[in-house]
């Protein structure tokens, strides 16, 4: 580094300094290459791991295929498949309005101060709560206190406790990231704050909010611990009964309902039937396809909606 | 409405003022504005002429933008902001006698950064009329075309009304924002350094546009560009440290100002 200072040798004096590369540049180039290589290696190994896991699960799922595995009976996972989707739908019906409303309130209405800080802290704590604790709380609050049995609705509420903070945070962050000009522009055109939120701010946030909903749904698809004592581990439905009040009606949300992830857990730990292993493998594969399908659909939906709002 | 309110005003003021009153849109008397304890505007007295362009000039932080925002009550949204004195629009006190939404339908605003909504060009212009409750497509179509024509951008945009406004250039976006403001049919247009984010060609086009707008609208513009004020403003008010130092017709203010601070500012000694 100091070779070009006072003690420069004669041969170096003849060289044009603009064509020379000194030690500091060589060092910087070397660390740049090293870091780039390391980062490529790390991300590459994660991609490999993901591919390995996915193909293992999918392979085993396909291997486990049998005539009855997808049936809506005790041998198949059709009922669990239906329960999973139904539970996620119910939990989104609860958590999407509440989550978006809370996010809008925090971003657009709450005055900065102690109450807002407390609310923010409460949400952060809620989002990092262990799901088994949420499940226990759900059991005490939605099952024991209400004096009922395990049911899908309680399970959906328990999952909502976990997913509301996700939707709130994504809504809040999306609103905060919008340019100030949107608000001012709308208000200067004689819109009320509410009209501004409904007609300008929320439509501008459709994509991030849908991402938040997707995360929340993923939470519902994958959740097991929070559902153990809320949605329950049994499914007793009759696809010929469509009286909502009947405990065996598929659409009755106040009946017990085992989801796919619980089925995986149950058949791996306490499965007694002959095809318990197959059930676990098939349920895992179906679950992964479901999550993938949902994630692609919501991305597509988000893009389609915002294209409709923004114009092409 | 205008004549009756003016009659009401003139009954209260000296009869010799009537002639002046009818030419006045905004009449500000002893306006003080505070952000918490900080006083941003001090005893502003200013009248603005109807269907003229009034420029507000002054160094950064002098209160010219703050003053502009009191005229459509945008400062109401700032926490801890407090206003004293009276501002009348056509004889009606905008803080005591007028709903802010009525005020903002009469006083449109264009901002420093072009701020089209992330919607189609059409939906941007139709936004204000829709808020007024206009839903008929035919009526909206007419308003959109008329507003875009007034903003001298119809020919450029008429074939792409359904495209996103965010795809336009900065200058086009700003003219779209002017069209969007005009669609509400205001009588006054406030412009807050509306050309400072634009290139010289776009700036020239907007200046040209503003010049045609004064046939129908009163324009009040904040600018940090003294040449711009000289090019297009009929009257100019010089603000300094929260006070309105001097207001006169533009030629007089720049060539024959009365106050020392004005002389120093317009001759480029500071600012």
From TrEMBL, chain A:
<keyword id="KW-1003">Cell membrane</keyword>
<feature type="transmembrane region" description="Helical">
    <location>
        <begin position="196"/>
        <end position="217"/>
    </location>
</feature>
<keyword id="KW-0813">Transport</keyword>
<keyword id="KW-1133">Transmembrane helix</keyword>
<keyword id="KW-0472">Membrane</keyword>
<feature type="transmembrane region" description="Helical">
    <location>
        <begin position="152"/>
        <end position="175"/>
    </location>
</feature>
<feature type="transmembrane region" description="Helical">
    <location>
        <begin position="279"/>
        <end position="301"/>
    </location>
</feature>
<dbReference type="GO" id="GO:0035435">
    <property type="term" value="P:phosphate ion transmembrane transport"/>
</dbReference>
<feature type="transmembrane region" description="Helical">
    <location>
        <begin position="85"/>
        <end position="105"/>
    </location>
</feature>
<keyword id="KW-0812">Transmembrane</keyword>
<comment type="similarity">
    <text>Belongs to the binding-protein-dependent transport system permease family. CysTW subfamily.</text>
</comment>
<feature type="domain" description="ABC transmembrane type-1">
    <location>
        <begin position="81"/>
        <end position="298"/>
    </location>
</feature>
<dbReference type="Pfam" id="PF00528">
    <property type="entry name" value="BPD_transp_1"/>
</dbReference>
<dbReference type="GO" id="GO:0005315">
    <property type="term" value="F:phosphate transmembrane transporter activity"/>
</dbReference>
<protein>
    <recommendedName>
        <fullName>Phosphate transport system permease protein PstA</fullName>
    </recommendedName>
</protein>
<dbReference type="GO" id="GO:0005886">
    <property type="term" value="C:plasma membrane"/>
</dbReference>
<dbReference type="InterPro" id="IPR000515">
    <property type="entry name" value="MetI-like"/>
</dbReference>
<feature type="transmembrane region" description="Helical">
    <location>
        <begin position="126"/>
        <end position="146"/>
    </location>
</feature>
<dbReference type="InterPro" id="IPR005672">
    <property type="entry name" value="Phosphate_PstA"/>
</dbReference>
<dbReference type="InterPro" id="IPR035906">
    <property type="entry name" value="MetI-like_sf"/>
</dbReference>
<feature type="transmembrane region" description="Helical">
    <location>
        <begin position="34"/>
        <end position="59"/>
    </location>
</feature>
TrEMBL record, chain B:
<keyword id="KW-0067">ATP-binding</keyword>
<dbReference type="GO" id="GO:0035435">
    <property type="term" value="P:phosphate ion transmembrane transport"/>
</dbReference>
<dbReference type="InterPro" id="IPR003439">
    <property type="entry name" value="ABC_transporter-like_ATP-bd"/>
</dbReference>
<keyword id="KW-0813">Transport</keyword>
<feature type="domain" description="ABC transporter">
    <location>
        <begin position="26"/>
        <end position="266"/>
    </location>
</feature>
<dbReference type="GO" id="GO:0005524">
    <property type="term" value="F:ATP binding"/>
</dbReference>
<dbReference type="InterPro" id="IPR017871">
    <property type="entry name" value="ABC_transporter-like_CS"/>
</dbReference>
<dbReference type="GO" id="GO:0016020">
    <property type="term" value="C:membrane"/>
</dbReference>
<dbReference type="InterPro" id="IPR003593">
    <property type="entry name" value="AAA+_ATPase"/>
</dbReference>
<dbReference type="GO" id="GO:0016887">
    <property type="term" value="F:ATP hydrolysis activity"/>
</dbReference>
<dbReference type="GO" id="GO:0005315">
    <property type="term" value="F:phosphate transmembrane transporter activity"/>
</dbReference>
<keyword id="KW-0547">Nucleotide-binding</keyword>
<dbReference type="Pfam" id="PF00005">
    <property type="entry name" value="ABC_tran"/>
</dbReference>
<dbReference type="InterPro" id="IPR005670">
    <property type="entry name" value="PstB-like"/>
</dbReference>
<dbReference type="InterPro" id="IPR027417">
    <property type="entry name" value="P-loop_NTPase"/>
</dbReference>
<protein>
    <submittedName>
        <fullName>Phosphate transport system ATP-binding protein</fullName>
    </submittedName>
</protein>
């Amino acid at each position: 580094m100091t070779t070009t200072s006072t003690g420069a040798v004669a041969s170096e004096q003849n060289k044009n300094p603009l064509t020379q590369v000194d030690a500091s540049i060589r060092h910087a180039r070397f660390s740049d290459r090293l870091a780039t290589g390391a980062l490529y290696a790390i991300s590459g190994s994660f991609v490999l791991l993901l591919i390995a896991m996915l193909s293992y699960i999918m392979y085993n799922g396909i291997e486990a295929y049998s005539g009855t595995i997808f049936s809506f009976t005790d041998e198949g996972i059709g009922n669990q498949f239906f329960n999973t989707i139904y539970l996620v739908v119910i939990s989104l019906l609860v958590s999407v309005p509440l989550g978006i409303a809370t996010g809008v309130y925090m971003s657009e209405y709450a005055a900065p101060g102690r109450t807002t800080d407390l609310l923010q802290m409460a949400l952060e704590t809620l989002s990092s709560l262990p799901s088994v604790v949420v499940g226990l709380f759900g059991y005490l609050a939605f099952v024991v206190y209400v004096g009922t049995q395990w049911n899908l609705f309680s399970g959906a509420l328990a999952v909502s406790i976990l997913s509301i903070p996700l939707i709130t945070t994504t809504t809040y962050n999306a609103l905060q990231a919008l340019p100030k000009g949107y608000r001012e522009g709308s208000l200067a055109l004689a819109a009320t704050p509410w009209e501004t939120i409904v007609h300008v701010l929320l439509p501008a946030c459709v994509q991030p909010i849908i991402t938040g909903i997707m995360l929340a749904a993923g939470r519902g698809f994958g959740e097991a611990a929070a559902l153990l004592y809320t949605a329950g581990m049994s499914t007793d439905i009759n696809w010929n009964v469509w009286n909502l009040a009947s405990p065996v009606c598929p659409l009755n949300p106040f009946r017990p309902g085992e989801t796919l992830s619980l089925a995986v857990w149950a058949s791996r730990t306490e499965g007694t039937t002959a095809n318990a292993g197959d059930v676990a493998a098939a349920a895992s594969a179906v679950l992964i396809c479901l999550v993938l399908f949902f994630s692609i659909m919501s991305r597509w939906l988000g893009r389609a909606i915002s294209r409709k709002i923004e114009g092409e | 409405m205008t004549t009756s309110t003016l009659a009401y005003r003139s009954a209260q003021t000296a009869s010799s003022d009537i002639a002046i009153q009818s030419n006045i849109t905004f009449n500000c008397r002893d306006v003080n504005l505070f952000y918490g304890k900080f006083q941003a505007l001090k005893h502003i007295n200013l009248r603005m002429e109807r269907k003229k362009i009034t420029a507000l000039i002054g160094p950064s932080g002098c209160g010219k933008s703050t003053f502009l925002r009191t005229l459509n009550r945008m400062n109401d949204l700032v926490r801890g902001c407090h206003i004293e004195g009276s501002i009348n629009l056509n004889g009606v006190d905008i803080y005591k006698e007028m709903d802010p939404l009525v005020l903002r339908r009469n006083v449109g605003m264009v901002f420093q950064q072009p701020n089209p909504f992330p919607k189609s060009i059409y939906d941007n212009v139709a936004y204000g009329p829709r808020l007024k409750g206009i839903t008929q497509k035919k009526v909206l179509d007419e308003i959109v075309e008329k507003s875009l024509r007034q903003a001298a951008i119809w020919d450029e945009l008429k074939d792409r009304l359904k495209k996103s406004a965010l795809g336009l250039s900065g200058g086009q976006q700003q003219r779209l924002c002017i069209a969007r403001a005009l669609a509400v049919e205001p009588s006054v247009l406030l412009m807050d350094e509306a050309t400072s984010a634009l290139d010289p060609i776009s700036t020239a086009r907007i200046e040209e546009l503003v010049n045609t707008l004064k046939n129908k609208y009163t324009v009040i513009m904040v600018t940090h560009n003294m040449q711009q004020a000289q090019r297009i403003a009929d009257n100019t008010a010089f603000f300094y440290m929260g006070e309105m130092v001097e207001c006169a017709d533009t030629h007089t203010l720049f060539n024959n100002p009365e106050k020392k601070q004005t002389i120093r500012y317009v001759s480029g000694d500071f600012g």
